[in-house]
Amino acid sequence: MGMDERKFRILQAIIDDYILTAVPVGSRTISKKYDMGLSSATIRNEMSDLEELGYLDQPHVSAGRIPSAKAYRLYVDQLLHQGLLHSDTESAVRAHFLGRMRQMEDVIDHAAQVLSSLTNYTAVVLPPSGPQPRIRTLQLVPVSSTAALVVIVTDSGIVRDTVIRVSDQLDSDALYAISKTLTKELSGRTLNEAVELLPLITGRMQQGEKLLQGLNSFFQENAGASHNHVAIGGRSNILNYPEYSDTEKARSFLSLMETRDKLASIISQQGEMAFTVRIGPETGVPEMADCSIVTATYSTGNGQQGTIGVIGPTRMQYDKVLSILGTMGHQLSEMFRED
Amino acid sequence: MGMDERKFRILQAIIDDYILTAVPVGSRTISKKYDMGLSSATIRNEMSDLEELGYLDQPHVSAGRIPSAKAYRLYVDQLLHQGLLHSDTESAVRAHFLGRMRQMEDVIDHAAQVLSSLTNYTAVVLPPSGPQPRIRTLQLVPVSSTAALVVIVTDSGIVRDTVIRVSDQLDSDALYAISKTLTKELSGRTLNEAVELLPLITGRMQQGEKLLQGLNSFFQENAGASHNHVAIGGRSNILNYPEYSDTEKARSFLSLMETRDKLASIISQQGEMAFTVRIGPETGVPEMADCSIVTATYSTGNGQQGTIGVIGPTRMQYDKVLSILGTMGHQLSEMFRED
DNA sequence: TGTTAGCACTCACCTCGGTCGAGTGCTAAC
DNA sequence: GTTAGCACTCGACCGAGGTGAGTGCTAACA
After folding, report:
1. Chain A neighbours among B 123-152 (CB < 8 Å)?
2. Which of A63, A87, A252, B230 is the one with CA 20 to 30 A from A217?
3. H or E element in which residue B291 lies
4. How far is CA B99 from the centre of its chain?
């Protein structure tokens, strides 16, 4: 007994129905609603086979069937092998991106918002990361007599700025001179390289010590994994779905959503694939035993990669989500490219 | 029949117990657990009086009593008239603030985090606002050949930075020269004043047009209400409490938490008081009919004011919350002062 | 006059048994 | 190979009865 065409069509109908209703689906439903030209009894036989093959689960003996993780996997792989961009999705995403966007963080916040409102699931957007960004410009801006703001511009946009203490003998012009020196010496370097070079450069300057300290810790902080800012949208969307009407489950899910770095490591994609779909146990996170995570990547002009993802119940509308993620990924890539 | 000392003690016991258990409290509980030296029958009589006075509600005839909003109000007013800083609270807050903090946004994010974890309720922190901040320094940092980052430092810290387009004939030195001019002319002005002055200044420069456009829209955006960044911590804490085990209620609460500006306007404090406590209907927000909102203010060195707040069920641990908010407010004020 | 013990009464909550209906598996007929 | 029919299973729903926490009232007591 193998998996033939007809079995597959039936399985697909079951998945579609279950995704919409969250109710175990019975043979009669399929034969009536999906117009297969088969009676419920026949469907029943096929469903029995599908269960034996591991594609269906039966919560209890007389409750209809629900798709297993394996079924979703099959379904998704199928989706991935065919083109999936609905054209109306494309325009919906575009419409949401009107209006000027400013900084990276605004962009990814906005993206998460849009993604969640389009899908009705929880959305996560990770900022670009990848090959170490290289310093383009470094500038010190006076804040008070003893403090300055360090702004580093990298080839992938502004990384970060922070206030550091400086000697009070440095006025605006002196800071500008230092900025020029530092930019000249560090331009084209990665942050890690900068950490090493820094003592050599500041050693040659008079007012170097305080500066060195401040810059050093700043570089080191930012050289590490840059999952600083994770944007999350539609946290409470998960409560739309009956699988999370159990408060305890909702709680653990939502508090997972609050620990950004944990979330980032769950979402962040390993390989180079355009899409990743992890279903139920495949997520590797107990709190998400009956969630699926779908992610896509986008890239910036200089080859850095970011991830966007959607988290929802296993009975997720995979086709729609994949399509939206695809569009959104393109949109983001384009947006970062033109900077 | 008035409100005497004994009635008040009984009411207090009822509130305390209800805050801890969320279960309607009966006369027997009070007489046994709170050691009043009175029998349950006596307590019963008093409770009956308290109900008539409007301090207690009875969900149904044989279910014990729960405190009314009026009772919480009395209880809170009482708290406010006595010193309330537990010394251990103070040190707990301090301990959480170790480690260097960087920018305003980091600080308030962190504050929200700490506040929610100390109280186990949902915490909200609004950034300082108030008298228009005045420009201290303005600097343009080159980003690419046609774009520059504008950084404005105000007397209350960094306001914002954004990337604007500039003529491609402006190199780093030219930008610096412009920065110096702009700083000289605009220093001490508010953003609104700057919007007016800008054309006059840039009119005298060659490359003014593009710059003017960019700076103008930047100023205008930031001159408006600066509730840009609202920090929220412990969103899902509300699910700890049985009054929100109803999923529908939790949903509406949580989605309210996602609309930052709405939230900001709810939280933001009108008067000049150190503390505000709004109980149940006093919040004026239907979604929060059985929530209380407690807020406190902090202030920056230059007289700007920010708000910190905690949202929880009406049976909130007011004493603890007020105490923590007080400490946190001081801590934040101090932190912003020394900048 | 205030306090207390006792008692009848109320009502949410739990449990239990019964019914209902969706859905299955099996068998026999087409 | 497909379908109709039927017995069977089991969760969901409903209503009845029991339980217990808590009240109000009354009468007795200090």
Report:
1. 136-137, 139, 141-144, 147, 149, 151
2. B230
3. strand B291-299
4. 22
Check CB contact of A250 with chain B, cutoff 8 Å.
Answer: yes
Amino acid at the residue B144? S
Matching residue, tokens 């139920």:
A280
User: Residue A323 and residue A299: Cα distance in Å, rounded?
Assistant: 17
Does the nearest atom of strand D lie within 7 Å of B51's Cβ?
yes
Q: Which residues of chain B have pLDDT under 50?
A: 98-102, 227
Judge whether B106 is closer than 8 Å to chain A, CB to CB: no
Portion 159-198 of A in contact with B at CB < 8 A: 161-163, 172, 176, 180, 183
CATH T-level fold of A83-131+227-337: Beta-Lactamase (3.30.450)
Of B102, B240, B250, the CB nearest to A163: B102
Residues paired with A67 in a beta bridge? A56
Beta pairing class for A66-67 and A56-57: antiparallel
CB pair distance less than 8 Å for B141 and A144: no
Q: Considering only CA atoms, which of B216, B107, B115 is closest in space to residue B156? A: B107
Measured between beta carbons, which residues in chain B are less than 8 angstroms from residue A151? 141, 149, 151, 161
Instruction: Name the CATH topology of A5-67.
Output: Arc Repressor Mutant, subunit A (1.10.10)
The ranges assigned to domains in chain A are 5-67, 83-131+227-337, 135-223
- Dump pLDDT digits (tens) for A32-68: 888 888 899 999 999 999 999 899 998 888 888 999 9
Residue written as tokens 């065409």? A5
Tell me: the pLDDT tens digits for A154-190? 776 655 667 777 777 778 888 888 899 889 988 888 8
Q: Are A121 and A244 in contact (CB under 8 A)?
A: no
